[in-house]
Batch of 2 targets.
Target 1
Amino acid sequence: MQETIYLNGEILPADQAKIHVSDLGLLRGYGIFDFFRAIDGKPIFMEDHLDRFENSARLMNLPIPENRDTLRAIILDLIIKNPHQLLGIKMIMTGGYSLDGYTPAEKSNLIILPKPFSFKESRQSMKLLSLEYQREIPEIKTLNYAVPILAIPKMKAIGAEDVIYHKDGFISELSRSNVFIVKNEKIITPKEGVLYGISRKHVLSFGKKQFEVEERAVSMKEFYEADEVFTTGSTKRVIAIGQVDNHIFSEGKIGKVTSKLQELFLEEEKSYA
Amino acid sequence: MQETIYLNGEILPADQAKIHVSDLGLLRGYGIFDFFRAIDGKPIFMEDHLDRFENSARLMNLPIPENRDTLRAIILDLIIKNPHQLLGIKMIMTGGYSLDGYTPAEKSNLIILPKPFSFKESRQSMKLLSLEYQREIPEIKTLNYAVPILAIPKMKAIGAEDVIYHKDGFISELSRSNVFIVKNEKIITPKEGVLYGISRKHVLSFGKKQFEVEERAVSMKEFYEADEVFTTGSTKRVIAIGQVDNHIFSEGKIGKVTSKLQELFLEEEKSYA
């Protein structure tokens, strides 16, 4: 059975989720998105994601066609109409149907796509390819992923499943998740030039109850000398980074702090579900 | 009457030019495009544009679903089906309908959109806003225009109609056209970090028959001290840049070399039409 989606005020079967090619997200990459999960019908960290979505919209000058209450009601309705134990919900908003193919329209296009979701349970840790890059507008969750997608063949060649960005000797983030290092049980994550992830926010929040926590620039040297390295994101929760290029972290094992945070993350989620 | 377009093997009325939201151009900005004009049914510099389109596709690892002969036949058919004296033809190709919303599909989505075109005849020269920026993959005509579109309110506030990019003290290009400076009747245009425009190519080619021509880095200092500054592009031909921010070029007049190149450009076009 196919999913039920939302498109500009209409609730439709997924195969009818079509937009005209004059959409400015398609023509010019002008748009934003957000993604979160629902477990057993309960959205996880939804208000955080709606906060960020609204903030991305404001920074991109994109009017949201629905207010927060309506948006929430639409999402909850879609969760009921798509009864999967684990559901991913992607919200996309673009500059609308542009008359001249460049200038944003007065009305944004808003799409909400629920889809069954599953974690890659088999993997214990991630292998990454390092990539010199800085996202253009890092604080906004924009639609632009051309550079990391272009790197997929390079990733595959070394068996990596994602990239980690660095620029001017400092690391920033993975293509779709944040990065943390652990040194002497202190948790450190880059502060500038990154997307402020919702999982990142929660890890910082509950992490500081048990560990010392710092948000600041992290050099590549410090990164490679870390005791543990992990990534956080809505599709990943907390996952150890086991290898970047040829460098192996934590002697190939999951670090103690990473393990503890994985446990705390699941507890945090349970308080929502 | 609405236009007739091409979408993945089908010839359709423009209002049916709709793609599913799982398109990777929309979801992740992963795609390329090109644009050229037809005058009185004759495409201008079409083979150059097809060369560039194929090159963009190759660099982005996007398979083109049609070979050159078929592509040319489709375009010529669309020109006949859309009998406008001046027609703009936009070709868009994306990473296709992605299964996981990130990895390019085996089959690209190819869209060809003809649309009546008109030059902004009223303007004698352009006013620009300077913007510190470098396109991410400058040699590919990608779909990513988030940064310049985000600058539209700033542009409008000073009455500018486009931006000119600079980085580390050097200028590169406008958002959708190339830039040239003239100093002592020598024509100079940036060589690196720019899209290799088809109009740029023709101006360099016929320009060097009458003037000295250089492709090399152009500093901002050199730019602001130029005798004349102009831009070239398929939607503009050759247009003088009259002002950038508060700086006025050529005492507000169209320079001699710019005028001459405008004349030669029209002659070059006529040899195709």
Target 2
Amino acid sequence: MAASRSSSTSFSNASTSPCAACKLLRRTCNSDCVFAPYFPDDQSQQFANVEKIFGASNVANMLNDLPIHQKGDAANSLIFEADARVKEPIYGCVGAISRLQLEVAQLQKELCSAHTGIDRYGVYTAGQEYKGSAYGGASASF
Amino acid sequence: MAASRSSSTSFSNASTSPCAACKLLRRTCNSDCVFAPYFPDDQSQQFANVEKIFGASNVANMLNDLPIHQKGDAANSLIFEADARVKEPIYGCVGAISRLQLEVAQLQKELCSAHTGIDRYGVYTAGQEYKGSAYGGASASF
């Protein structure tokens, strides 16, 4: 997956500093803080983006709805999505999807042309082989 | 862009029914409603997804921050993104991006192989031409 920075972050609530979320939201960072494992105190910009785009309570709800082993990936994809929306306020992630879809279409077109080229060479080669045997010339094996 | 349904929706606040947003939020749909042009009353599911993922006030802020001619595209990309997150709660749009990136990588690999194949045929053809002239056989033109 595109974002995989903090999924393995170990969270120690014995830490003296609150997580990036609790710092921004000015609240006490408890041992059961839903944000702390995924938004450690050095990820303040990431959480600020996520909070601006999705809202803290929506993010908490989305994380709470998932089993523990999926929360890290979900947090990282939310970070990625929020970052894309901050950088590209009209299209967000959908801009990247559109560009990739165009790239796929372009590559498929090029691949189709390349295969047509190979087929033409194949016809040419088969013709050479045929001419070779019909007129007693050298075989086309090279 | 992937989503372009309601960008050209004309909004008449003279309509008797409130927009999908005001209906869900149980508020009066005024003539200056920020949601109404992009979430007409038949788009209740789309607004419900957008509200669940981004929150109504965040969506209003994002739309208000954009010039009028960009609000439609922004609303449609938010609808697309929210729909992706509802369907795929862990990865949302990022899942589609990852799949497209894999598809691009696969196509680039296939294209590279195809070009290598064309180059080999080219070497082969050049060799045939050379053999043809060296041994007095038929020319390679076909």
